[in-house]
Design goal:
This protein is an alpha/beta fold. It has helices at 12-21, 37-49, 64-70, 84-92, 108-120, 130-145; strands at residues 2-7, 26-29, 55-60, 78-80, 98-102. α1 (12-21) crosses α5, α2 packs across α3 (64-70) and α4 packs parallel to α5. The longest helix is centred in the last third of the chain and has 16 residues, at 130-145.
Length: 147
């Protein structure tokens, strides 16, 4: 799996820890120097939405700001996760393609478990969540084309 990773300066250490556990995947670091987390979030989201990367992981202080910024990109489905169950459901029920985590609110060991779970899950088309996921995609097409 090809994974794009980025963070703001608050999450540099957590980003390093997460990258260290992703050794079975191709990981590209989009940086962490820009204090305007929206810039790295949008860069990662664009590459994931375009299909150049399979998934993205974004980190900031809470995971909320990068999620909001990434979700402005059509085709990016970013969700903040604070526990393993939410990480699992973000893929299995929602087909999210970007995980966001807050370095100031989630400990390193828990963050690594969240990432491992999220990476291991695969969305299955045609399942019971398909109609719900498609509804989100349909709204996206309508709403994002209105500008």
């Amino acid at each position: 799996m090809k994974i794009a990773v980025g963070s703001d300066p608050n999450a540099v250490e957590l980003k390093k820890s997460i990258c260290n556990i992703l050794t079975d995947h191709e990981v590209v670091d989009f940086g962490s120097d820009d204090p305007l987390y929206a810039n790295v979030a949008v860069d990662v989201a664009k590459t994931v939405a375009s299909g150049k990367f399979d998934r993205g992981i974004l980190l900031c202080g809470t995971g909320l700001g990068v999620s909001l910024a990434a979700n402005k990109v059509k085709g990016a489905y970013a969700t903040p996760c604070t526990n393993v169950y939410s990480a699992e459901r973000s893929i299995l029920s929602n087909n999210a393609n970007i995980l966001t985590i807050g370095s100031l609110v989630t400990g390193s060991e828990l963050a690594k478990k969240i990432v491992k779970t999220w990476i291991s899950c695969i969305y299955e088309s045609g399942g019971r969540s398909e109609t719900k996921v498609q509804c989100i995609r349909d709204h996206e097409k309508t709403l994002m084309s209105q500008g």
